[in-house]
UniProtKB/TrEMBL annotation:
InterPro entries: Knr4/Smi1-like_dom (IPR018958), Knr4/Smi1-like_sf (IPR037883). SMART domains: SMI1_KNR4 (SM00860). Residues 24-149 form the Knr4/Smi1-like domain. Coiled coil: none annotated. This is Cell wall assembly/cell proliferation coordinating protein.
């Protein structure tokens, strides 16, 4: 568990009035989600999932896993959203959606762009644009950095 993740979790707990979570996801659901997506979640994201499932914090909605029936789920289910985008716009399989800005940009775990701990960085993705047109700009080095920044921004 990283320092950034601990800080973010503490801020979330201290600002309970902004929190709407889905209850922690079981290990079985997390394992099933990884199998369906064909990836391994980073440790801090697994902690987030087991603690919150998915999280609405003020006006931000961080995607997660909270039910086993991924096909009949919806936002903010990361498996449902990712599979949906793969189907609709042929989103590459190395991307897993974490957050939708509402402005046409999605923040994704990018399994083609790994940090020093061999975990996916968080990069931008614009659905509907060809893979050649994607910049996949690195926004955060890891999930914990993303979570801490999102939570801090929302409080400020």
């Amino acid at each position: 568990m990283s320092t950034e993740y601990n800080k973010a979790k503490k801020l979330i707990e201290e600002n309970e009035n902004l929190v709407d979570d889905f209850g922690g996801a079981s290990d079985d659901i997390i394992k099933k989600a990884q199998a369906v997506l064909g990836i391994q979640f980073p440790k801090d994201y697994e902690l987030f999932l087991s603690c919150f499932g998915a999280l609405t914090f003020g006006s931000i909605e961080i995607y997660g896993v909270f039910r086993e029936d991924f096909e009949n789920s919806g936002v903010p289910d990361t498996v449902w959203a990712t599979l949906n985008e793969r189907k609709l716009v042929n989103m590459p399989k190395h991307l897993v959606i974490l957050y939708n800005t509402g402005m046409g940009e999605m923040y994704c775990l990018n399994y083609k762009d790994l940090n020093n701990n061999n975990e996916p960085k968080i990069t931008s993705y614009f659905p509907g644009f060809s893979e050649d047109a994607q910049k996949n700009e690195v926004l955060y080095n890891n999930f914990a950095e993303f979570l801490l920044d999102m939570v801090t921004e929302e409080i400020n």
